[in-house]
Amino acid sequence: xxxxxxxNDAKNFFQVFEPKGETIASLAVPGSVEVLGDVTEFNxxxxxxxxxxKSALIMVQKRKERDRSIHFYSRRYDEKIRMSLxxxxxxxxxxxANYVSxxxxxxxxxxxxxxxLNVYIDDNIPDFFNANSMEALEIGIASIAQxxxxxxxxxxxxxxxxxxAELKFMKKPKNTAKYMPAIFGxxxxxxxxxxxxxxxxxxxxxxxxxxFMVMSAGLKKKTMESRIMKIIDEVKESxxxxxxxxxxxxxxxxxxxxxxxxxxxxLSITQRKRCAYFISENDRVEAGKQALAxxxxxxxxxxxxxxxxxxxxxxxxxxxxxxxxxxxxxxNEGVKAARLLNMGIxxxxxxxxxxxxxxxxxxxxxxxxxxxxxxEINSEVFDLTNEIEETNINVSEFKNExxx
Length: 404
Known about the structure:
Shape: globular
Number of strands: 12
Radius of gyration: 22 Å
Number of helices: 12
């Protein structure tokens, strides 16, 4: 995002907050999705992710010395929330702000003093599917807080702080991998992450002539949530059984498919399928990385399609609506690859399609899906043109320009 754009957004900042200092620190953090792989607490594995074209803009100004209050404002929700750094706990009434405040609490818990802040958030990351919008806010506040402190923090440390904060205050599984694309991702590239080995790498992707599209009916069924939880329990039980044989593993990333064959007979058919999905998906991500490194776009798209077959056959989470969306998508000649996101929990499909046929394909899928299911489809298009961007706004300069 250009500095002039952020400078213009400062006008909105001062409609909410009175000036408390000479600097407004601004950061635009993109949303992101996993193109390949599924990194979970029981599978500290591999993923290839992409940044969306939409970002969360965070603008922060320091309050007066010894002020321990944080004042949040969200333009999306048109809501102002105040909390205190002296009261470090989750509060139901704070809603979305709990994610941001928990990051500040965790920073202070590691000895990084924060101090009072005014925080303005203008988030246009889509919310009809999981695009890591809250994670973008957490990254943003952790990155900006150091500008007003006497400490510094690396990108890897930010990912750890944010994931630890979600674990401690939000009671969510620790997952540092989901923060990596927004923190480290670069324009024109996909982000490769090996969570088990703490490896992060950007890979060139020749997107010329192609575009990514996310399509979703926004279905977040309780039945799907319970099904995913059952899969998690099945995998955890499998790991426990394997460990009982003397195999020293805590997560499935420590095992290859060949090694897994030794333990198949000890597991139920369902358990075998679930474990095989995550283990083979790690191999698939590695193959995807190699395809990207060699510039073989066709092979990479083929691997995405193979991943979808893995989801359908081994996770067995494809609902009637998901199946309809997949079938309709793949009927279109311009669609080169399609894969369910988030293990199918919210009916979201990631498509890679020919840019020149995008409008035609999008229109056809939406009409066909509506006719078949009675449900409307939301869509978001992106083309790897976004990365984290920051700037500072001098308040005096801003006032002189706007009042001149």
